[in-house]
Each structure stands twice: as C-alpha cells, then as structure tokens.
Amino acid sequence: MLPLGQQRGALAFGALALLSIGALAFDLTLSSRLPSAGDYGEAAAFLRGHARAGDAVQIWPPWLEQARLYVDVGPVLAEEDLAHADYVGAQTLWLLALPGSPHANFAHAEEELRARGATPQAAALHFGPLTLTGWDLHAPPLASDLAFANQPREWHEVQYVSHACRVMPVGGERDPSRLVLTGDAGTALHLRAGIVGERAYDSQVTPIRVEAFASDRKLGEVVLPRTVDPLPAWLGADVPSGASGPLQLELRAWAPGPFRPNICVAAWTTR
Amino acid sequence: MSANGTKGPKAGRGEKKSAAKAAAAESVAAPIIAAPTVATPTISSASADASAAASPESRLGDRALSRILGIATFLALFATQAPVGFTRDEGYYFSAASSYEEWIRLFLKAPLTAMGAAATERFFRINSEHPALAKMCFAASHLVFSRWLGLLGDTTAWRMPAWVFGGILSVCLARLGFTRSRAAGVLAPLLFWCAERTFFHGHLACFDIPICALFVAVALAWARALGLVDGEPKRPWLRGLAFGLVFGCALATKHNAWFLPPVLFIHALLLPGALRLRALKTLPWILLGPVVLVAVWPLLWHGTLRHLNDWISFHLNHVHYSWWYLGDLLRQPPFPISYPIALLALTLPITTVALLFAAALRLLWRFARRTISPVALLELGIAGASLLPFMLRTTPIFGGIKHWLVVPALLAPEAGQLLVELARDASAAFPRLRPRVALVLAAAFALAPGLAQIARVHPYGTSAYGELAGDEPGAASLGMQRQYWSGNVTAVLPWINAHAPMGARIFFHEVNGESFHAYQLMNLLRRDLRYAGGPGDAEYAVLQWHREFRDREPETWNAFRTTRPATGLYLEETPQIVVYARPGLPGAP
C-alpha cells in the first residue's frame, strides 16, 4: 500500500494527464468547429437568393464579423442587445450564428429575439458550424426612414455598437441645435439617440435632451444621461406621429451644462 | 534532502519526520520563518546540505545545463522573431535606440563632448520616462551587428539584446530550479516559456522580459550572496558586489526594481539567526543600484535631481488607458482586485495555470506553517511584490500580463518541482512506469498545451488566450481585450503590398509612425506607401479591433461608403485586423 502522500501524487499525475489531454483536444479541434470560407460562401449564396430588400442580417456572437467579407445583402449588424435592437424597416432578420463557439450563449440570443415578439420562420439551416435562421420580426411596416430619406446612410458608434444615425451637435437650453427631417408621417414615430464615442462616459456630461417637434407641437423626447455601462445608452421613444401624409420633424438637442458631446439620432415612422 | 527542503528521489517519510523535528526545535528558538524541512536554518547546515545536494561535479553540470537552456532560449527566440510585428512601444524604443547609438558614436570619437550636458540632453531626452540600460543594449547591438558588421537588419539588431535577456532568464530560472532538483531546473524555464504570451514578449525590444530576467537574476544573486545557492561563498564580498551590480542593472532597466529593496529587507528579517545577520550585512550592497543607474543613464549626469523628478512624476501620474475585461471597459480606478490573477488564469495554458496555482498554494502553505525554505520564501516574496501593485486597484493595468511576468517566472521552479514529485509518485504507484518515463510524461502533459498555443497563435501573442477562457473565441465572447500594441498588423502587410497602388495613402490606425517606418525599413511594407492620419484621407484603412476604438470602423464605412471589408486577420474567427479599401481600388470587394 502506498503512503497517502504518494497516492495523492499519483492521483494528481492522473489529473494532470486528463487536463492536458482535454486541453489539447479542445485546442486542436477548435479550428474544425469554426467556419471555413466555403461555409461562409454557401451561407452568403443562400442569403443572396432568399433575402428580400429591407431584410437585415444579425451575426452572433457579435464578433462573427468575418461574415462581412462574404455577405453582400442587407446591412450586416453586430448588435449586442437583440431584444432592443432597432432593425429599422426589416420584416425578416437573418440570424447568422456560430452556436458552438465557446461562451457564445446562443440560447440567450434566441431568447432575446423571442422577447421582442420575433418567431423563427423555419428550422435553422446549417453551413458547416454556421447556422442561419430567418426570424419574422412582426414589425409594423416602415413608412419612412426620416434620418436617411434624403441622403445615404451613415454610421456612428454609440456604446461600442455601430448605429445608422445622423450626428447632431448639442446646443444650450436657449439655443438648441436643430435638425429637420422629412418623410411620411405614418402612424408612429420612433426616435432613437445616443452620445457618440468615448465622450459619452465623461463625468462632465449633463443630461442631454432630444426633443421632437412637428409644427411646433412636441411629439416626444429622449433624455440622454452620461453613459454608464452596462446601462443602455442608445435610448428612444416610440410615440404616435399625430398626423398623416407628409411630416416635417424638427429635432432639438440641448444640455444645461457646458460640456456638450455630439449625439447621434435616428428617426423613422411606421404604419 | 536538497538545499530547499524538497525531498530527494529516495527520501523516505521517516527522514522527513526527523528533519522536521530537528528544524522545528530550531524554529522555536528563532522568531522567523525557519523551515523544519529546510536545509538552511543555519549557515553551516545550509552549506552542508547544498554540498550534499550538489557536488562540485554536478554543480558544474548544472551550470553547463543552465547555459545550454539559456542558449536554446536565445536561439528559439531568434528563429521565431521574423513574423513578430513591431509593437507600438517598440517603435518608441527603436527611435530612442537610434538616438542613443548616435551618442555612443560621439562618445567613441569625442568622449568629453559626449559627456557634456548638451550632448546628454540632446541624445537622451527621447523616451526619458524609462532608464537607459535596455535601450543602450539595443543601441549597442545595432551599432555592432548592423552598422559595423552588417550581419543583421536594423530591427533584428535592436531586438537581439532582448533575446539575450530571455536567455539570462532561462539560466536564472534553471539555477533556482536546481536548488530543488535537476529536473526542476530544466522544467522551470520550459514552464515559463511554453505559453504564447511569455514567448511573444521574449521577442520584443521592450523592457518586459529584460526586467523580468533581472528580477529573477536579483533573486539568484541575493541567494548566492547568502550562500543559499552555490554553497558557502569563498569571497562573500564578490557575491555581494555581484548582487549590487545586478540590482543596479534592474534599476537601470525599469522603475519596477524599486520594489525589490523592501522585499529583500523583509526576507532578511525572516531568515534564521546567522543567516539573517549575513543577509543584513549583504543588504548594503544594494546601494550600488543607484550608482549603476546613474552610470548607465547619461541623462542623469547633468541636472540629476530634475531628471529624477521627471522620471518619478511620469510614473506617479501615468495615464489610464481603456482596457476591456470580462465585458467591462475599464477606464479609471478602482480596478478589480482580481484582475492580475484572473488575467494570468485566462491567458496561460490551463496546465501551466494549474501548476503555477498549485505551486503558489504550496509555498503559501509552507510559509503559513513556517516550513518554507529561504530560497522559496525569496521567490514567493518577489513574485508577490511584483503582483501586489496591480492589486492596489489604482495602478494603471494596461498591457496584459507583461507587467507581472515575474509571477509565472518565480513560481516556475516550484511548479517544476511539483511535476517532478508527481512523476515520482506516479512511478511509485505504477511500478511498470519507470521514473524517467513518468517524468517525461509529466513534462509532456504540462508543456503540450502551451506548445500547442504557440503553434496556433504565434506571432499574435497579445491576442493569445488559454483554455480556461475558451481560447480566443471564448475570450472574445467573455469580453476580454482582443489585442494591444498593433503588432498583429504583419498579417495583412503582404496583402497591402500586393494590392495598394503606387504611393497609396494607408490609415494604419494604432500602428504609430515609428513602427510604420520600421516596417518600411525592413521591407515588410513598400516604401512608396504613405501614412494617413485617418480614414478620411486614406485609400485603404487597416483597423485594429479594439473595443475602445470601435468608432473607427463606422468612420471608415462613412468615408469609404462601404461596410464590406477587403480582407483581414481573423484569429480563430475573432477579428483582429480588418482592412477596408475604397470601392474601385485594387482589392476592394
């Protein structure tokens, strides 16, 4: 019979062997659990054939950005909060995912989509380790993307996520900065705003008000406090547009304090 | 018994008990950390045990073996350096080394002029926030091997001293390991280097490996001066002098070395009686440190106090860089107290993590039970002291594990000994498993994941993560810093060279001007290409994926009117470098 110390040592040797073999198995099979160019190519080809104008592609995990090399339909979005992401105008959201990657938490992504009322259109398609699922967002149809009705889309970063939005300076209470947007009024106005870049975290930020007016009637407002992770910083209001036909929307942005970082705004109407 | 109280191959339980009894009696008399199983409660027994553990022949063999390990480390770093990108900090040190080299040439021609205030201010003002020794080595290497002999390219010559420091680190780790067993001495440097993060840092003309090597060298020199290593000194003053000079070199490399004197003082106080006295008598040699610092840093030859003040002020008021950690972008204190330990656990291979963790626990356990050996206590103290500043929650924490590489280094000898003991126990449990085979197997189990990590990730060392994180994809999902220092850009330079039109303007994002010119100097980047300040005035944009710089990508989309990249470096699928080209240009999608 071995002394207790040597028995423990032998057990530790066995544990080390198991740990090492497990680690090697994990490391050496990792690349086989990741998609190849061919997998991406097939997924992109499927999307080319099946996606409709206005559809959006969401990648998961959000770092699956290599997809942008291959997917050439719709905006390829790397939203991190799928329950509250905008997906402006999209009826179908294509979720291109790598569910088997470590800590991917794919179930969480699906839960978030379900939480916003989305439902999968069919079973997931598999392209190697990639899965592609069309989700019906059950979103009201887009009346007008006011922010980009008269100009190409531009993108800006708010809380480390790229958003399609227009940059606005921020004025004072008596001289707010203004941005006029036009389009179809639809029945509901969706206003989103966030402070751009790292300055959003500056301790000097005082709450920034973004007010939406139509014919001098205030339709709604968004208040942007200093960004503090993990609280959301891309904030919004969904209000009745209060009119029909053409809409001229005036956005006014102001803050009481002297530190006024740029903000980014998006606005669209739905029927 | 070996000099540090670890069991020799045939030491039985009975021997251990009797040794423990004897030393326990000694520890009652001495209010210090004395080790019952330690062979060095007194100077005489220390030397006796050291002699028993290492005869002159075997000591000679150990020294030769440690040198072989050092040379092997140098050659391994040399052989694998070519694809390692020039990091941001290296760019600054290359510039500083160029300036220092000019001063050395002036010194060789006109020493008095070179020693004057005008010359020292002119040539050493650049990068004056760090002492000069490492940069002087880079400069001297470039002067000799590139300018005079023409044997090496510019950047290779600048980097070569770093590999020498890597070799010195291996030698010192082996020597500390040999105080336990011969196998532990071989395993200690292997355990340290078999991880992509440590291996990567070994290549760079930076201070991280040099200061790590010098911390370990100070530990070894101190242990030698006290007779804990290499037996009783015949000429104690010589070993004291060596200790003082090595400490001076550490001080002249990076300010971290100022943490060493208090640690050594506490170590001295915790030693048994006679040894404590010797340690306290040896400690004054530490005063050589500032002398060496001033001697090798010509900037301090004139306006000494002013420059010292600038140096200290820089580090006391160091800026905080944004750093992504477990989904939070850390910008300012307080930082998580667990940060340095968690980062070690998430970046190193899992077997290394397990062994280092076990080694730390064993050392702490022995310290608590007052059975730790003086050498192990020294290793534990210096490792702890190098970690402690980063657990204060206020120290700037950018740069991953490079700032506390001393921790894995000084735990490696104990971890190596643990492996030796595991192999011995396994062999005892399974008689058909011969001891040597068991040891080779144990080493293979311990080192294989690290070797696999190097094979998988090198040369993109700042992006490497271990199995606990789920490798690089897992770390990306966990919200860990993707990379830093911009060195990964080497992956896309061939694509840029092949596609960019003559004279094209490239926005290189985090690659600073110094590194850009270094790439051109080494013909890794075409010399006709120009450096653009932003995507707005660029034809191509080479973005490094950083959480804190996510604004650069939409900025590029807006400027280039496309959201589709042209190419990129996607390491195990995670975006590291993303290249955009303006539509219509060669390579654009």
Largest sheet of chain A: 6 strands, mixed
Query: How big a fraction of the residues of chain B is strand?
Result: 5-15%
Q: What kind of assembly state do the chains in view correspond to? A: heterodimer
Q: Provide the low-confidence segments of chain B as ranges.
A: 1-32, 34-57
Radius of gyration of chain A: 24 Å
Helix segment count of chain A? 3
In which order are the strands of the major sheet of chain B placed?
4-3-5-7-6
Separation of the first and last Cα atoms of chain A: 82 Å
Strand content bin of chain A? 25-35%
**Which sheet architecture does the biggest sheet of chain B show?**
5 strands, mixed
Write down how many β-strands of chain A occur, each being a DSSP E stretch of 2 or more residues. Answer: 17
- Percent of residues in helices of chain B comes to 55-70%
Query: How much is the average pLDDT of chain A?
Result: 95
Number of helices of chain B: 25
C-alpha geometry of chain B: globular
Please give a quick description of this structure.
The complex is a heterodimer of chains A (271) and B (589). Chain A has 271 residues and is an alpha+beta fold.
